[in-house]
Amino acid sequence: MSEMQELGQAPPPKGVGDNAFLQFVQQPRILLLLLAAWAIVGVLAEVFTQNALFLDNNNHEIDGAVAGRALAWQGIPLAALYIYCFRNPDRFRNIFLLALIEQAAAIVAAVYHWGAGDFSLESIVIPIGVSAGLAVLSFVNIFQAREEGEKVVG
């Protein structure tokens, strides 16, 4: 029994910094793998357009002068970049700024398309949740670099 428990005092609540899971996913290499995996999930959603798990377009064509750009597999170069930076995350700390911008853009795009009636609320909850989590982790990594005296941008 700890000294605090013997005195009838509750131990202090654990902070976010004490959470083993958050400490694990905040590691630069782990975060880069998570970002790469999320980019690959985006590509799978663009590839399997007839699978309701990824994208159910109700057998409608995506049409328009530049509609082919809508499913252009942009996640492939992002995943490749995250995996490349995985080799030495201390050298490529700026990748987390790009990740923050990417996740913010994904959140804004999901909200926009939900508002436009392109997606149902159920279709954007998980993507927004995952993107928000990755954005927060990227944000934390950006500021950890500053605390260590490293240059973040430039």
Walkthrough of the structure:
The protein has 154 residues and is mainly α. It contains six helices and no strands. Helix 3 runs antiparallel to helix 6 (121-147). The longest helix has 27 residues, at 121-147. The chain is globular and about 55 Å long. The model has no long low-confidence stretch (mean pLDDT 84).
**C-alpha end-to-end distance:** 52 Å
Strand content: under 5%
**Number of helical segments with 4 or more residues:** 6
Q: Tell me the Rg in angstroms.
A: 20 Å
Query: In terms of structural class, how would the helical and strand content be classed?
Result: mainly alpha
Q: What is the H/E order?
A: HHHHHH
Give the total of beta strands: 0
Instruction: Name the average pLDDT.
Output: 84
Low-pLDDT windows of residues? none
Helix content: 55-70%
Q: What's the overall geometry?
A: globular
- Largest sheet data: none
Summarize the structure.
With 154 residues, the protein is an all-alpha fold. The protein is 58% helix and 0% strand.
Give the SSE layout.
Elements: H1 3-6, H2 20-25, H3 28-47, H4 75-86, H5 95-115, H6 121-147
Helix pairs in contact: 3-4, 3-6, 5-6
Overview features:
mainly alpha, 154 residues, 6 helices, single chain, globular
